[in-house]
Design a protein that fits this description.
By secondary structure, this protein is mainly beta. The chain contains one helix and eight strands. The protein folds into two domains: 1-30; 39-179, Porin (Beta Barrel), CATH 2.40.160. A hairpin with a 2-residue loop joins strand 2 (68-78) and strand 3 (81-92). The relative contact order is 0.18.
Length: 185
């Protein structure tokens, strides 16, 4: 009877020890071993832009072919490293829609559909705010097959007067999650 109690107690301790070991192994497992939880993406970008009336009827990523057409280029820093930003969009009223590409120094690129809205009219110093979403649609190199989304906030300022093309600067902040087909990035 005494051996039975010791044996049962040892079995419980061994089982508890194995459970703790399994929990530690799961917590410390490389990300590729676990289910894809997504890779956080956060970054800030400074861009310059040029805007013209959309007389050619251009549209980008399925957007409305009217309003104004805007092209923007710049660079920034992100949790994925240094990235350049290239954006082509249309502006129809407060709606912003277009195609955005983030490119790493080695040429790997991440593509997104850009949807946003101006949240206010220009202030006395000609600054205007916008918010929106980036929907990632793939890419090249290490971004091939990427998906996910990020929210963005932006501050714009027109600095080129009223003649066409209008020119300005913008500051973007993005935050979201990327997923990759192989679950590891």
């Amino acid at each position: 009877m005494f051996q039975s109690i010791i044996s049962r107690r040892n079995q419980i301790l061994i089982t508890l020890g194995l459970l703790v070991l399994a929990a530690v192994a799961i917590a410390l497992a490389p990300k590729a071993v676990r289910a894809d939880e997504g890779t956080p993406i956060e970054g800030t970008f400074t861009v310059s832009f040029s805007a013209l009336p959309n007389t050619a009827g251009d549209s980008f990523c399925g957007g409305t072919p009217s309003g104004n057409v805007v092209e923007a280029h710049g660079a920034g820093s992100s949790t994925l490293g240094a990235l350049s930003l290239s954006l082509e969009k249309t502006v129809v009223g407060p709606a912003l829609h277009g195609c955005l590409t983030l490119t790493a120094p080695n040429g790997d690129s991440l593509s997104a559909i850009y949807d946003g809205t101006f949240t206010d009219a220009p202030n006395a110093n000609n600054f205007r705010n916008a918010v929106g979403t980036l929907t990632f649609t793939g890419g090249t190199g290490r971004f091939q097959g990427a998906s996910g989304s990020a929210n963005f906030t932006a501050v714009f300022s027109r600095i080129g007067g009223t003649a066409n093309p209008t020119q300005g600067i913008a500051f973007y902040s993005i935050e979201g999650t990327l997923s990759f087909p192989n679950g590891d990035q």
